[in-house]
What does this fold into?
Amino acid sequence: MLEGRQRLKEVLAKVVDAAEQKFEAEYVEVRAQKLHKTMITLKEGRVEAAKQGIENGAALRVLVKGTWGFASVGALDVRTLTGAVSDACKMAEAASSRRKAPIKLAQTKAFEDKVASRPRKDPSRIPIEDKISTALAVNDVILGFDKRVKSCTINYLDLTGTTFFANNEGAYTEEGKLYVWLGVGAIAKEGDVFTFSREAVGSTSGYEVFDVETPEKVGQMTAKRAIEQLRAKPPKGGTFPAVLGPNVVGTFVHEAFGHLAEADLTLSGSVLSDKLGKKVTSDVVTFYDDGTIKGAFGSFKYDDEGVPAQKTLLVKGGS
It folds into this structure.
């Protein structure tokens, strides 16, 4: 394993050097991955899909004459990667004649690091039969909760492996990737009323997440919510005070604000592009983008540009 990683590091270095020397690229980066993936889908206790496989490949980005070029491939040998970076450089050079202004990059510190994932229960070592059994256990709890629960769909995903990042500024990182996710949906019916409930479990710690978020807990929570909604009254239209759970607040902020605050969207003219430092919410609102929470589904050590994860203040006191 170590030999394989060392060889890949050397390959990535050769590709970066080729882009600089042959095409005079101002900036070069390669993001590569070696991943093992499992996907399972159940409906009413029937396994509709069960897949396991390996995903290897790389994405290459270059800056030539102030213009971006991009290419991706599904192999990690030096010949394929060199060809891809050549294509990316030619793409950037061809597009440079139409650029309005050359792209300039912010100065960042280059890191060289290796980060291993250390789960107590490695998903890649759990037999697929056991993963199906976990999903089936959730299904049985949901469908057995109340006869008014008529349908249940469960999707399971896990991903393990390593991602690699290298650029011409001296950065090189290897980071263990580990995701475990279970999505559950239940439909209940009484008379002419249909309700839908869903729940999700996600972790970057390991398969041990199901020791805490047990099939019984997840199944009962999902089914109970679907049944309780059968008695819910339709809300009247209007503006009212609302009490929201943390998961609802997080989802709302993510969708309504987070995507609009992404750098590429903001620079291209999102509704937040001229709101920096201005009032955008109530005075009581403060929130962060935080990729450093241990075990959280959106946490990581380094992002896709080799920059360490951090806790970033987005809105403070409404601005």
Remarks:
- The chain has one domain: 2-233.
- The helical segments are 2-23, 78-95, 128-145, 209-212, 215-229, 246-258, 263-267.
- The chain has a mean pLDDT of 91.
